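User: Show me sequence and structure for the first protein, then do the same for the second.

Assistant: Starting with the first protein.
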Amino acid sequence: MASRGRAPAFPIPVGGRTFPPSRPLSVYTDMPVLVHSLDLPARFYLTDHAQDADILWATPAFFASHVPQSARGRRQWKATLPFLGEVDDKCQLVHLLTRLSHTRSQLSIPWLPRSYCLPEDLPRLLDDWETPSSRPPSAPPSTWILKPPHLARGWDIALTRSLPCILRHLQASGRLLVSDYLTSPDLWLDGHKYDLRMYVLLLSPSLVLIHRQFRVRRASQPYSMALEHLEDLRIHLTNTTLGLSGLGQADAGGEEGHGCPTETVSCLDFVEKWESLHPGREGWEGVRRRIDSMLRECFSLIGRAGGREGGREALHVHDPYGRALVGVDVLLDRATLSPHLIEINASPNISGMLSERPGFSNEVFSAAFIEGGWREDGNGFYPLIDQQNPNEGCS
């Protein structure tokens, strides 16, 4: 077994034996999209028998009810990690990163919106609301976005400038994340808000990969901060539908929702047109480096963080047989082009990614389970964090 804090060496002994390169690995999944997209028969094949599989790549619901064979003396790879619940829950992620900023004598993290997790942060919210603001009198009032802490996917979200409205939503939901709304997001050529869904592959505390390609999700109505438009989520949300399948559990991008499908822009089209929308400003490559720098800092912080269970380190409570593909949602500020972290989804939908990049599942599995797989020609992953080869931790 690999030592603490190091990426496991390949091949790894599993259940007293080693996976030889010549033997394909059996994969159990309950995700239809993976059944139809994983196509590397020389390396992986699907099985209907979870107890006999080498790899379990399944939904959180499966892992909630399934006892891994590792608990019975047999090692299995699995698409889950001990800390995923902490980063997938918006409130827990905010508390984790805020705590880290205080230990580093930072008042705030510039790429993390100011947030309150209710009800526990309600006294702080009330105190801050009553404290005279340093904002100039001519500045527009603060706008807040209200979200459930977990699995919102465009549902039960509201924008408001009213404290009574926040309290009503808290009473109705019982638990609520209240965050400063980025009122000046970068806009696409038609004046619509967009966000970027990045795909990050967590292999160990010391090896975190990101894919070069990403999804661009676009709101369905032109952007406006007029008071009468605050309740129109078609203007403010890019994920207004509920997804039903994915390489991870479903998130935005599916069939039902607020009356309109999630609209996307091809990643290649986006990159080609982006610079024409920002003449004389920083090029896209520079913005992408800033996004990568933000995510590198984010996952490095999480990796060093004290977890919520007995002060253990979150990422370093690591199962060397665990893997995770997470989706990270990013917004750009219109004035500065600075990236802002919106949320991390521990089980992202990849159906849209597959429509643009049909071999994405093959890339994920090769990077996750084949030695040096992410270095192969055609594999779009590269390291955000590579402590074994520090010079490779950049795009």
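Switching to the second protein now.
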Amino acid sequence: MSVRRLAEDTVQPATFAFNKENAAWAKATINKYPKGREQSAVIPLLMRAQEQDGWVTKAAIESVADMLGMPYIRVLEVATFYTQFQLKPVGSRAHVQVCGTTPCMLRGAEDLIKVCKKKIAAEPFTLNEGGTLSWEEVECQGACVNAPMVMIFKDTFEDLTAERLEEIIDQFEAGKGAEVKPGPQIDRIYSAPIGGLTTLQVPQPEEKKSAVRASKSAGGDKAVSVPPSNAAKPKTASDVTNPTLKTPATAKEASARNAKIEGETADKSKPAKKPRVKR
């Protein structure tokens, strides 16, 4: 796992404060946890701070720590551990997260990364000239069946081609990201089969079923009698499967002889007899 550090002091704001709406939300979130367990709200509070400012600043980490009565280092550990927290400024209109895990890679994720390098910046976590766009490569986003895909903020855009991603980036750059429909970018619903459903379809009306039966009867098709199969009944002349032979439980003398030949005692529950010594 790569080392994650806070952004340089030159881009860090001096202070942070939740706006009125988010402050009320933060207070209600903290109250959901039992007394003495308020620190469990650290992740949702950091996420709300990121949604408000676009990224997690040093001032936001310290503010959340003060709200929860936590040492600054503890909140810093959480923010730097989870890659969902952006520790540097990202695009104000779109931060494109390209999934590069195996299914997406096999389906064209490398072409999507080339688009991001061409349309946004040559390196990840780098703002474009206007500061409106940025990108990064991430691990699995959970839409493998619709690979390849990207996530922009909280929305996923799936079944992408390089050309379609270029169009989406252009729309976000123009401030029209809300007009882009999330989800599959081809003609299918969510992760349903391409071309439509093949199972669990609406059953045929009874009239059509009757017509099909009538046509089969008119064709003179006769049912074929198939004899029962004996495939599961092995035929063998081996003594092991011969039911007429006695088992070791009933043929004790034979079992004892066999045991003696193998160098074992017939009855292991009794101590072995000592061999007689000739004098």
